[in-house]
Design a protein that fits this description.
With about 160 residues, this protein is α/β, with parallel strands linked by helices. The chain has two helices and twelve strands.
Length: about 160
């Protein structure tokens, strides 16, 4: 019995080393073939692959995000779209694409970022957007610390809900 457990554990560890920034989504990111976000690993890939932030995404399943509370030394999920300023550098890389949650749920997403690092700006699943279309998202049981559920700058997101 013990030997049967070792192989799956080793395989999971190997896969997690191959994809530390998530698993790429199916699709090409176009309007007719959007990236399909089906798992938490897909959502992680979206947040860590800024080269895709001008593309189109659809969520195709409910996502359980409880494990994000232990990510990045307790800081949780990194937002999609960033604006970072410090004395040494400034980075402005907003999400400008589209994300349609198709009324699927993202449950227990955790973002606990140091507000001083982010210059007092609240942070959510979408950290910074500029001309993006975000719709039909449902985020439940939010684990928040300095976080707006969906985005910053108090922008309105149509047909989206969040609960904590």
């Amino acid at each position: 019995m013990f030997n049967k457990l070792i192989l799956p554990i080793v395989l999971l560890l190997f896969i997690s080393c191959l994809f530390p920034d998530g698993v790429p989504c199916i699709g090409s990111g176009t309007q007719t073939d959007p990236y399909q976000v089906a798992t938490l690993d897909n959502l992680l890939w979206v947040s860590t692959t800024d080269s895709t932030w001008a593309n189109h995404f659809i969520q195709t399943a409910d996502i359980d995000a409880r494990v994000t509370s232990s990510w990045s030394d307790g800081r949780g999920f990194g937002p999609i779209g960033i604006h970072y300023e410090s004395v040494e550098e400034s980075t402005y890389d907003p999400f400008v694409g589209s994300y349609d949650g198709q009324n699927f749920i993202i449950d227990s997403l955790n973002i606990s970022l140091n507000i001083e690092i982010y210059n007092g700006v609240t942070v959510g699943m979408f950290g910074v957007i500029d001309g993006a279309t975000i719709q039909n998202c449902n985020i439940t049981n939010i684990e928040e610390s300095g976080m707006e559920p969906l985005i910053t700058a108090k922008k309105q997101v149509p047909a989206c809900t969040s609960t904590d």
